[in-house]
Amino acid sequence: MWPTESWPAAGERWRRAEEMGFETAWVYDHVAWRGSTPWFDAYATLAAAAVVTERIRLGTLVTSANFRHPVPTAHAARTVDDISGGRLTLGIGAGGIARTSDAGILGGPEWSPRERAERFAEWTDLLDRLLRGPETTFEGVHYSAREVVTAPGCVQRPRPPFAIAATGPRGMRLAARQGALWVTTGRWQEPAAMYETVRTEIAGLEEACAAEGRDPAELRRMLLTEPAGPGLESPAAFEDLAGRYAELGITDIAVHWPRPGTGDGPDLTALAEIARRRTG
To answer: Which residue range or ranges hold the Luciferase-like domain (predicted)?
Structure first.
């Protein structure tokens, strides 16, 4: 779902997604994305969406440390989990490296790939502790928290599930350790190359699960498709795409809601038929 429309027009989109039978409606968490404005806050959007829906799960795809500290992030997440009656899935990732993906917008030195991975691991550890509560004090290399009271905790126990976007070895081990869902884009490339990328990534994920003592079957795996990528031009094309990736072990596929005037996302009629076929 694109956080680019003012309410209540945006609310109609969220209601429609629920009516169409989708399991989860996700929203990108950025200040702006690829120069698009307006771009509204993800957690405020999810709180509003929680009020106009009843069944569909709601999630960020993804929140990162690029501009969010774990303490206010946990506070916002607990609030959305409460308003939604326990329907929040917290999608998290290390964050993009480009300014258009919010990298560096808070100022300070640029993060090296190693530092970004270290920050994400520490950020996730602190976020996990904050959501579990009831009080957290934490002193890390990059993040800290002092006597943060989060009692009585979240509606979902011990906390909302994490959907972790990660493709590197350290991130995959983090997903194996703390994730309920692993997320990949396959690097949004030519279809054959993307398929092989996902194949390789899943092999790495299963190695990470083995290293962490996690049964790989317990971890769901989601492919986030490109806004105007192949496989979305018709319900038949989507069924072919979903079938091929299911063979690799992908359990969930996220598609973009149509964004008028941009070419982002499938035709709404095709999307409705895709949803009908997938939900029965």
So the answer is: 6-224
Letter string b/e over residues 130-142, b meaning 16 or more CB atoms within 10 A of that residue's CB: bbebeebebeeee
Are 146 and 192 part of one and the same domain?
Answer: no
3-state class of 200 per DSSP? helix
Residue 181 structural domain: 166-280
**Of residues 280, 169, 166, the one with CA closest to residue 221:** 166
Contact 94, 117 (CB under 8 A): yes
In this predicted structure, which of 125-129, 242-246, 265-269 has the lowest mean pLDDT? 265-269
Choose one of 159, 193, 219: the last residue of a domain. Answer: 159
CATH of the domain at 22: 3.20.20.30
> Residue 90 is encoded by which pair of tokens?
């917290």
Instruction: For residue 243, give both structure tokens.
Output: 């079938």
Question: Into how many domains does the chain fold?
Answer: 2
Structure tokens at 50: 């929680």
Cα–Cα distance, 185 to 28 (Å, whole number): 14
Domain boundary among 159, 187, 209: 159
> What pTM, to 2 d.p., does this model score?
0.95
Q: How many whole angstroms separate alpha carbon 80 and alpha carbon 246?
A: 31
